[in-house]
Amino acid sequence: MFPWAPALVALLALVAVYLSFPGLFRQRRPQEPPLDKGFIPWLGHTLAFRKNMLEFLKRMRAKHGEVFTLQLGGQYVTYVMDPLSFGSILRESRKKLDFREYAQELVLKVFGYQPTEKNNQMIHTASARYLMGDGLEELNGALLESLSLVLLGPGGSRPDNQGWQEDGLFHFCYNIVFKAGFLSLFGSTKDKEQALLQAEEMFVHFRRFDLLFPRFVYSLLRPQEWLDVNRLQQLFHRMLSVEDKEGVSVWLNYMLQQLREEGRTQAMQDKFNFMMLWASQGNTGPTSFWALLFLLKHPWALQEVRREAKEVLGEPRLEENQCFTFKFSALKQTPVLDSVMEETLRLGATPTLLRVVQEDYTLTMSNGRQYLIRRGDKIALFPYLSVHMDPDIHPEPDRFKYDRFLNPNGSRKVDFYKQGRKIHHYSMPWGFGINICPGRFFALSEMKLFILLMVTYFDLELIDANIAVPPLDPERWGFGTSQPTYDVPFRYRLKPLQ
Ligand code: HEM
Ligand SMILES: *[C@@H]1O[C@H](CO)[C@@H](O)[C@H](O)[C@H]1NC(C)=O
C-alpha cells in the first residue's frame, strides 16, 4: 500500500543512528590532521589500542606522522607526537583546552567521587602548602618514623632481624613504600603493632584494586571482577576514615576541612580519601622498584650512589633498639641520586596527558603548519614514546644511564636538544601545566629517603645477578608508572649492629 514505507523506515533508522552516534560518519575536513577511524564503526581502534597502546601508537605514527586523529570508542583523540610543538598546547588557557571534564568522568567512575568546581584549586593549594617547601620538612619527619616502623618494627632494630631475607624486589618496594606513605599521610592507631597490621591489610586490598584498575577504566572487567571492585570500593571508603587516628597529615586534614566547610557529606569525604590514597600511593612504590633494580643491575651506579650518600650522611650504623636517623638536609645534596631518579622516571613513567578541546582550536606546530581541531575532541600527549624514548633527545633511549641527567661538573643537566633545538620538556613523568602532579616534591623525597635508607643501612643483592630487567606490563601504558611483567627475587639484610 505504501511502497515507500520501507525506504522511509530505513531513512529514519539512519537518522536515529546518526543522532545517537554523531561521530560515525565523520569525514576529514581540509586542514584537519589525518583521520584514522579504523574498520569497526564507533569502536574504531579501541581493541588494538587497549591491547598494547605503545605498539599501536608506534604504528600510527609510522603511518600518519607527527599528528593524527583516532576514533576510539566514539571519541576522537588527536595525538601530537612532536615535542617541539608541545609549547603552544602547554601554554593554552583552560578556556580553550581543559582537562577537568575528562578527569571528572574518570574520578566519578573509579572512586565514586563527585568533584566540585573548587576541588582542583583546593588540592593544589593544600599541596603547595604541605607537600613542598617548609611543609615538606614536617612530612619528612613523619615519613622517616613510618619507614623505621615498617622496616624495623615498633621496637627499632633487633639483633634477630639481621639475617638475610628474601623477597620479590617489586613486592618489597611497593609494600614498604605504600605502608610508610599511607601511615604518614593518613595517620595510624596509637598501638603501633596494630597500625602495622592495618597498613599491611590496606596494601593487600590496594594491590587487588591496582591489578584490576586498567581493565576497570576500560570497562573490561568480568562480572565477578565487577563485584570485587565494588566490594573493594566500599571497603576503602570504610577503612580510610581518619576518625580516631593520630598523626593524620596536615595536607589531608586541610583538604577534609575544606570539604566539610563546603557541606560535603561524610560519604563524599570517604570517597575523596580513596582518591587521594590512589593518587599518593599508586606510583611511588613501583618507581622505587625500578630505581633499586637499575642500581642493582648497574653496580657502578650503585657504588656512586653509595659514595655520595656516605659523603652527605656518613656511615650510619644502628644500635640495638634504635630507629633510623637521617640528616634531611642531605636530600638537597644528592645530584647523583637525583639523576638516577630522573632516569628511572624517564624509563618507567608512562602517563597519557589529555586535554578536552573547548572551542574549535588551531594547533600550530613548530614548523609553522597549522591544524584545525574540533570542539569536543581530545588532544593527547604520550611523552614516553614521543619524548622519553626519542633517540635524538636521549641517545640510546632504552639504556639506563645513571648520569644521563648530570653535567660533567656534577651539576644537574637541563640542556637537551632535538634537531639541534633546545627542548624544555625533555622528560614529563609528572604531567604538565595546571594539573601537573602536586605531590611531585613529596614523591621524590619519599622515594629518595627510602633508597638512601636501603643503600646505607642494608646489604642488597639480586638472587640471580644475570636476571634480565623485566619488560613493562603492556596493560598499563598510559596509567602513571609502569609495572614489571614479572617480579625479581632479591635478598637484603641489615648491616651489623654496633
Ligand atoms: C612517582 C610518583 C608519582 C608520579 C609519577 C605521579 C604522576 C602524576 C601524574 C602524571 C598526574 C596527572 C597529571 C595529568 O593528569 O595530566 C598526577 C596527578 C596527581 N598526583 Fe601524582 N604522581 C606521583 C606521586 C604522587 C604523590 C606522592 C602524591 C601525593 C602525596 C600525588 C598526588 C597527586 C594528585 C593529588 C594528583 C591530581 C592532581 C589534579 O587533580 O590536578 N602524586 N600525578
Ligand atoms: C657546570 O656545567 C654546566 C654545563 O656544562 C654549566 O651550565 C654550569 O654553570 C656549571 N656549573 C658550575 C658550578 O661550574
UniProtKB/TrEMBL annotation:
Pfam families: p450. Heme binds at residue 437. InterPro entries: Cyt_P450, Cyt_P450_CYP7A1-type, Cyt_P450_E_grp-IV, Cyt_P450_sf. Keywords: Endoplasmic reticulum, Heme, Iron, Lipid biosynthesis, Lipid metabolism, Membrane, Metal-binding, Transmembrane, Transmembrane helix. Gene3D superfamilies: Cytochrome P450. It is found in: Endoplasmic reticulum membrane. Belongs to the cytochrome P450 family. This is 7-alpha-hydroxycholest-4-en-3-one 12-alpha-hydroxylase. It comes from Dipodomys ordii (Ord's kangaroo rat). The lineage of its organism: Eukaryota, Metazoa, Chordata, Craniata, Vertebrata.
